[in-house]
Design goal:
By secondary structure, this protein is of the alpha/beta class. The protein has one domain: NAD(P)-binding Rossmann-like Domain (Rossmann fold, 3-Layer(aba) Sandwich). It is built from eight helices and seven strands, in the order βαβαβαβαβαβαβαα. The chain has a seven-stranded parallel β-sheet, with helices on both faces. The longest helix is centred in the middle third of the chain and has 29 residues.
């Protein structure tokens, strides 16, 4: 089992939603934290609260992960502060709903930068140190959208498929080096992810951030390579691509996002 107490976790997208709950649960396990997000005021407030409540060291870093140099800056800043990352939680993610051509190109590219490029960079920059020390962990948040093309969320689903496949391959490569890598595939979660979209889903149709994080950490402690912290019906839907033609799966997925009001 991962030795949480006294170690340090870096959590991206930590100012709210799943990231904030990750921070709370890891702090409760005695971990020092590096919290990264664009919302500095919210980060500093959370860092202060968790430090006071759990007696841990908590560092807030204001960074826009859509900036291509953000990962290098984070790594350099932590080296300057002599902070070693033992557990990396790549939680930050961007997702656009609606048809691909209805968005600005820069928006789509920003989603790819956050979900793929920065995640890979952080995994590389901190994974190297973990491998050299022969201990550490990486948790990458993918999605139940990883398993099929998803009309109305085309780029998001494609980036999350990358995260899933990348994480599984990295897990295999680092298995003998004391570094445990796990991908996480939650379903729709009651955060502000869908804020500003046309979705007609309500919170009762989604999982809670608390449930997602608790199930994720339980799976991580069990040594799982992929975690599915969601309800059975959502998990069942991820199995369809194994048995049905991809063209049919795409039609079913398109009908689902249309039913969710995302088109």
């Amino acid at each position: 089992m991962f030795n949480y107490r006294g170690s340090t976790a870096l959590v991206t997208g930590a100012s709210k939603g799943i990231g904030e709950v990750f921070a709370e649960h890891l702090a409760a396990r005695g971990m020092n934290l590096v919290l990264v997000a664009r919302s500095l005021d919210a980060l500093e407030s959370l860092a202060s609260r968790l430090s006071d409540k759990y007696g841990i060291r908590c560092t807030a870093l204001n960074a826009d992960l859509a900036d291509p140099v953000s990962a290098d800056w984070i790594a350099a800043e932590l080296e300057r502060r002599d902070i070693q990352v033992d557990l990396l939680v790549n939680n930050a993610g961007l997702g656009l709903s609606g048809n691909f051509l209805s968005h600005e190109l820069t928006q789509e590219q920003g989603s790819i930068q956050v979900n793929v490029q920065t995640l890979v960079s952080l995994s590389y920059l901190f994974g190297k140190g973990m491998k050299n020390r022969r201990k550490g962990g990486i948790i990458n948040i993918a999605s139940n959208a990883s398993f099929q093309p998803l009309p109305a969320m085309a780029t998001y689903a494609a980036t999350k498929a990358f995260v899933l496949h990348f994480s599984e391959a990295l897990s295999y490569e680092l298995a003998g080096d004391g570094v445990h890598v796990m991908a996480v595939c939650p379903g729709p979660t009651a955060t502000n992810f869908f804020a500003g979209t046309t979705t007609n889903m309500s919170a009762k149709d989604m999982d809670s951030s608390k449930s997602v994080v608790e199930k994720t950490l339980a799976a991580y402690d069990q040594g799982k390579k992929v975690a599915y912290p969601t309800r059975f019906s959502v998990r069942l839907g991820t199995l369809l691509p194994r048995f049905l033609p991809r063209s049919l799966v795409t039609k079913i997925a398109g009908a689902a996002t249309k039913n969710m009001g995302l088109h």
